[in-house]
Amino acid sequence: MEPSALGNVASLAYSLPEIVLGAAVVLLFLLDLVVTRKETLGDVALVTLALVVVLSARLLWGDSAALYNGAVVVDGFALFFKLLLALAAFATVWMSLGSREIQKNGTGEYWAVLLASTLGLLFMASSTNLLMAYLALEFVSLTSYVLSGFMRHSRRASEASLKYLIYGGVASGTMIYGMSWVYGLAGSLDFRAIHTALMSGQGAALPLYVALLLTLAGLGYKVAAFPFHMWAPDVYQGAPIPVTAFLAVGSKAAGFALMIRFFFTAMAQSVGAGVYQLVGGVDWSQLILVLSMVTMTFGNLAAVAQQGNVKRLLAYSSIAHAGYMLMGFAVLNDDGLRAMLFYLTVYYLMNLGAFVVVMLVANSTGREDLAGYRGLAWRGGALPAVAMAIFLFSLTGLPPLAGFVGKFYLFAAVVEKQLYLLAVVGVLNSVVSLVYYARIVRTMFLEQPTGGEGVVAVDWHNGLLLGLLTIGTLVLGVAWGPLIDFAGRSTHFLAY
Amino acid sequence: MNPYIALLISFALCAIVAGIMCGASWLLGPKVENKAKSEIFETGNPPLGSIRGIRFPVKFYLTAILFVVFDIEVVFMYPWAVVFRRLGWMGLGEMAVFVAVLAVGLAYVWRVGALEWD
Amino acid sequence: MYAALFYFIAGLTVIGALGVALSTNVVYSAMSLLAALVGASGLYVFLAADFVAVVQILVYVGGILILTLFAILLTHQIAEIQVSNRSVGRLPALGLVVLLGLAMGAAILRAPWHVEPLAAATPTTYGIGDSFLNQYLLPFELASVVLLTALVGAIVLSRKELRE
Fold first, then answer.
1. Which of A217, A232, A257, C141 fits as disulfide partner to A81, beta carbons 3.0 to 4.6 Å?
2. Which of A223, A243, A271 is a domain's end point?
3. Stretch among A220-224, C77-81, C83-87, C151-155 having the lowest mean pLDDT
4. Longest dimension (CA), chain C
5. Neighbours of chain B (3+ CB pairs under 8 A)
C-alpha cells in the first residue's frame, strides 16, 4: 500500500532544479573571485533561475515521489511552489540588475547569496521531515539576514538586518522547541510518521496544542502573521528594494508552503472529496481563523496610520495579505488551498509590481516617502504611475483585476464553509485597505508636483519587467481559468 | 552509566584540584587592600579613561567565525571517518561533495584576504 | 547517586540560564551561558548521547561562546536604542508568560510522552555517521552549503565594517 521513499542515488534525477541551483551558488562564489564586472554574475544568476524554472516545469509531467529517504518530496504541491519561488527569484534578480541601490552597494556575493536563499526556499516547499524543514528554514533566514544588511554606509540597512536576526533567532528557537515537543509526542520527525502516531491516539490535546503554538512561531514569522510580524516594517523599510520584494513574495510563499504541508499532512486527515479532518484533538483551524482575522485587521489599521514611507506601508499591507491568505488555510479543504495558491500567484505579480515602481522612483529621485510620489504621473512617470494604480487597486481587490479574482475565491471558500464572521471581517478589511492604497493613487495623480521631486525616468530594462507584471495582473483579472485549474491540480500531496 | 564513571571521576578530580588551588590561596594568602592595588594594571602607567570605551577590531570576530565554521566541518567529518570503511567509495564521494563545497569557502576566504591580519 | 548527579547538572543548567537572562552585565551573562552550555552537555551524557555531548563542548563552549564574547566586546553602548515599534508594556507580557508557563507545565505533566526503551550506553558515533551518509544525506549535504553561505555572509557583513 505505502510505496517507500527513494534512496539517495535514485533521487538525483528528480532534483535537477536543486542541483543546478546549488552548483550555481558554488560557481558564483568562485566566479566572484575572478570576474571584475559584477553584473556578469547577475546575468549568470538570471540564466540559472530561468533554467530552474524550466527544469521544475519539466517535472510536472513526471511522477510524484518521495526522495532522499523521505527528507523531501516532489509532488504537484511542491512543484507549484518551486515554480512560483523560482519565478520570484528570477524577478528579483531582474529587479536587482536595474536597481541603483544594488549597483552602488552590491558586491559580487549578492547574487550567490540570493541564489542560496532561493535554494533554501525550494527545500522549504518540499520538506516532509521536521529536520529538513528546520534546516531549510534556517538557511533562508541566514541568507535573508545577509541580503537585508548588504548595503554599505547604510545605518538603516544594518539596523534592519540586526532586528531581523534577533527576531528570527527568537522565532526559530521557539519553533525548534515546539518541534522537540512534537517529536517527544509522536516519536518521529517525519510528517507521515507523526500523522500515523497521532492517528493511533498517541499524544494528547493540550501538549499537542502547546507544541503547535510554539512551532507556529517560526512559521508565522516567515509569513509575517500577527503576532510574529514585528520585524516586517523595519526590515522592509531598511533592506534594499529588490530584497524587500524578495522577502515579501518569496519568503512568504515558502513559509505558507511549509505551513500548509505540515498542518495538512501531519496534523490533519484527508477524508475524501477534498475535505480534511483534524487529528490529535487539536482544533488548529480555529486558531488559524483567529490569527487570520487579527493579522489582517492589524496590518490594515497599521497601514492606515502609516503616513510616511511607502516601503513601510507595503510592509503593513503584506502583513494584511498574510491574514487574507490564512483564510484559505482555516477552511480545511481543497477549495481553500486552491484559493490560497491562486492568491499567492496573484500576490506575486501585484506586490512585486508595486515594488518595481517603488524602485523606479527611488532610482531616479532616491526617495521612498509618500511625498516623493506627489504628481508622479505629471513628471515623466506616467507609465509607472498607471501601473502602480493597477497594482494597488488589485491589492485592494477591485474588479476587473487579478486581486479581485483571488479574493473572490478566498471568500467563496470561506462562505461555503459558513464561516460568516471571517468573511465579514475580511470584506471590512478590504474596504479599510482602500483608504491607504487610494491615498497613494491620489498623491500620484491628483496632487501637482511642487517642483522639488525630480523627474522619474523609465529605462527599457525595468520597463519591460513592469510591463510584464502589469499585463499579468490585467490578464489574470479576466482569464483566470487556466491558473485556477493548475492551482486546483496542485493541492495534491503525495502520500508515500 | 558505568562507562562514564571514569569521566565523572576525572571531572571530580579537576573540580577538587581547582577548588584547593583557589581556596588555599584565598585562605592562606595575605590580604592588603589599598588604592594603588585595586587600580587597573596598565604596565605601571595611570589608566587612561574607561576600559568600556575600547572597541575590539572586527578582525577578531572574523577569525572567530572562521574557526567556528571549520570547527563544525570537522565535527561532521568525524562520524564519517568512523563509518568510512563500511561505506567505501560511496561514502567517499558523498564526503567529497561536502568538503568541495567548503573548500570553495576556504578559497573565497583566502582570496578576499580574510586570513590576513592587516 | 545517579539522581543526585542528575539534579546537580540540571540545576547547573537552569541556574546558568537564569544568570544569562537576569544579569545586568552582559559579560556576566555570557559567562553564565558557559555554565548553561556545560550543563546541557552533561544532560546529553545522561541521555547516552556521547557524541552530541562532546560536540556541545567543542562547538558551543569552544566556538560559539568565544564568538559571543567577541561580539560583546566589539560593540559598545548596547543600551542606547531607538524604539520604532510600539509595545504594550511589561505587565501584559508577564501575564502572557505566566499563562504560557502554566499551560506548558500542565501539558508536560499530562503528556503521554513517547518513551524509547532504555538502552545500554554504547558509543553513538557510528550510528550518527551512518545516518549522515545514508538516511540524512540530503540535510548533510545542504549543511555544507549553509556553512559556506554563513561563512561568506559573515565576511561580507564584517568587511563592510572594515572598509568604513
1. A257
2. A271
3. C77-81
4. 58
5. A, C
Q: Is A242 helix (H, G, I), strand (E, B) or coil?
A: helix
Residues spanned by the domain of B72: 2-111
Q: Does C126 touch chain B (CB under 8 A)?
A: yes
How far is A441 from A390, CA to CA, in rounded Å? 9
What DSSP letter does each residue of C92-118 carry, written as one string?
A: HHHHHHHHHHHHHHHHHHH-----PPP
Closest residue of B to C50, CA-based? B4
What is the interface pTM, i.e. ipTM, of the complex?
0.89
* pLDDT of B36 strictly over 80: no
Q: Using one digit for the tens of pLDDT, what is the confidence trace for A156-165? A: 888 888 888 9
In a domain, A47, yes or no: yes
A45 and A166 part of one domain: yes
Burial A305-340 (b: 16+ CB within 10 A, else e): ebeebbbbbbbbbbbbbbbbbbbbbbbbbbbbbbbb
- Structural domains of chain A, count: 2
Is C71–B61 a contact, with Cβ atoms under 8 angstroms apart? Answer: yes
Q: What is the pTM of this model?
A: 0.91
b/e A33-55 (16+ beta carbons within 10 angstroms → b)? eeeeebeebbebbbebbebbbeb
Closest residue, chain C, to A153 (C-alpha): C164
A405 and A430 inside one domain: yes
Look at residue A119 and tell me if it is in a domain: yes
**In the block, residue with C-alpha cell 491516539:** A201
Same domain (yes/no): A256, A325: no
Q: What is the pLDDT of residue A158?
A: 82
Separation CA B26–CA A482 (nearest Å)? 82
- Is the Cβ–Cβ distance between A95 and A241 less than 8 Å? yes
Q: Do B104 and A26 touch (CB under 8 A)?
A: yes
Residues of chain B numbered 21-50 and touching chain C (CB < 8 Å): none
Does B104 contact A32 at a Cβ distance shorter than 8 Å?
A: no
Domain match, A189 and A290 both:
no
Q: Which of A271, A304, A325 is the last residue of a domain?
A: A271
Domain ranges of chain C: 1-76, 123-164
Shared domain check, A263 and A233: yes
The partner residue sitting opposite C156, judged by closest CB among A109, A142, A207, is: A109
pLDDT above 70 covers a percentage of chain A that reads 98
A186: Cα separation from own chain's centroid: 30
Q: Is residue A8 assigned to a domain?
A: no
Residue of A nearest to B100 (CA): A26
Output the domain CATH number for residue B61: 1.20.58.1610
Half-sphere exposure of A83 (CA within 13 A, CB side): 20
Inside any domain, residue B9: yes
Query: Where is A308: in which H helix or E strand?
Result: none
Overall average pLDDT of the A62-70 stretch: 86
Nearest to A116 among C136, C149, C164 (CB): C149
Q: How many domains does chain B have?
A: 1
Q: Looking at the complex, does the CB of residue B108 fall below 8 Å from at least one CB of chain A?
A: yes
- C108 CB neighbours in chain A (<8 A) are 207
The fold adopted by the segment(s) C1-76 is Four Helix Bundle (Hemerythrin (Met), subunit A) (1.20.120)
Tell me whether B101 touches chain A (CB under 8 Å).
yes
Query: Which chain C residue lies closest to A113 (C-alpha atoms)?
Result: C149
Which residues, 6+ apart, have CB-to-CB distance to A158 below 8 Å? A149, A238
- Give yes or no for B89 touching C (CB within 8 A): no
Q: How far is CA A326 from the centre of its chain?
A: 13
Is the bond leading into A233 cis (omega within 30 degrees of zero)?
A: no
User: Is B117 inside a domain boundary?
Assistant: no
A334 pLDDT more than 80: yes
Shared domain for A457 and A483, answered yes or no, is: yes
Let me know if residue B116 belongs to a domain.
Answer: no
A139 and C157 within 8 Å at the Cβ level: the answer is no
Is A463 part of any domain? Answer: yes
Q: Look at residue B64 and tell me if it is in a domain.
A: yes
